[in-house]
């Protein structure tokens, strides 16, 4: 263990010992909210750092519970997610779930022709986004 890890471990033990003596539920609930807020902040930081490792045009893959391994090309890097375009859909994926397939960055639309669909469907779970609306929702001019 490093010196920092030893210090953190000692601090955690001190906090745990203090918590054992605390009997006020209101104070414990407040403390719980503060801990959850700190964890959420650290998660957002980790995702932002992980997103910096990816570039638009990179070929990546991730695993879906229902569809298995899915590969595609990064089209956009957001604060919390990365948009990955596959042959049929565009997925919004956490950067921590992505693996680079090949480090070569695809440039220009001619290189993306094999993975860019002309129309996409929209899923209820919001993991899939749509580039173009279905024809029935496009207003007619005339």
Please provide a written account of the structure.
The chain has 142 residues and is α+β, with helices and mostly antiparallel strands. The protein folds into 2 domains: 3-51; 58-134. It contains 3 helices and 6 strands. The chain has helices at 3-21, 25-51, 108-112, and strands at 58-64, 68-77, 82-85, 90-93, 99-105, 128-129. The protein has a 6-stranded antiparallel β-sheet, with no helix packed on it. The longest helix is centred in the first third of the chain and has 27 residues, at 25-51. It is elongated, with a radius of gyration of 22 Å. The protein starts with a helix and ends in a 13-residue tail after the last strand.
A few lines on this structure:
This protein is an alpha+beta fold and 142 residues long. It is built from three helices and six strands.
What's the shape?
elongated
Round the mean pLDDT to the nearest integer and report it. Answer: 79
Q: Topology as H/E string?
A: HHEEEEEHE
Task: Count the domains.
Answer: 2
Strand order in the sheet with the most strands: 5-1-2-3-4-6
Q: Roughly what fraction of the amino acids lie in strands?
A: 15-25%
Structural class by SSE content: alpha+beta
Q: Helicity range of the residues?
A: 25-40%
Based on CA atoms alone, the radius of gyration comes out at 22 Å
Number of helices: 3
Number of strands: 6
The CA-CA distance between the termini, in Å, is: 74 Å
The largest pleated sheet is described as: 6 strands, antiparallel
Q: Catalogue the unreliable spans.
A: 113-133
């Amino acid at each position: 263990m490093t010196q920092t890890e030893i210090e953190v471990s000692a601090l955690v033990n001190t906090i745990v010992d203090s918590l054992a003596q605390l009997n006020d539920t209101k104070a414990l609930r407040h403390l719980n909210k503060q801990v959850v807020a700190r964890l959420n902040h650290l998660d957002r930081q980790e995702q932002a750092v992980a997103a910096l490792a990816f570039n638009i045009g990179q070929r990546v893959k991730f695993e879906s519970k229902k569809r298995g391994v899915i590969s595609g090309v990064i089209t956009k890097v957001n604060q919390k997610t990365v948009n990955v375009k596959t042959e049929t859909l565009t997925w919004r994926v956490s950067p921590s779930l992505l693996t680079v397939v090949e480090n070569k960055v695809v440039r220009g639309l001619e290189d993306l022709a094999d993975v860019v669909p002309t129309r996409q469907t929209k899923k209820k779970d919001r993991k899939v986004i749509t580039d173009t609306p279905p024809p029935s929702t496009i207003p007619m001019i005339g």
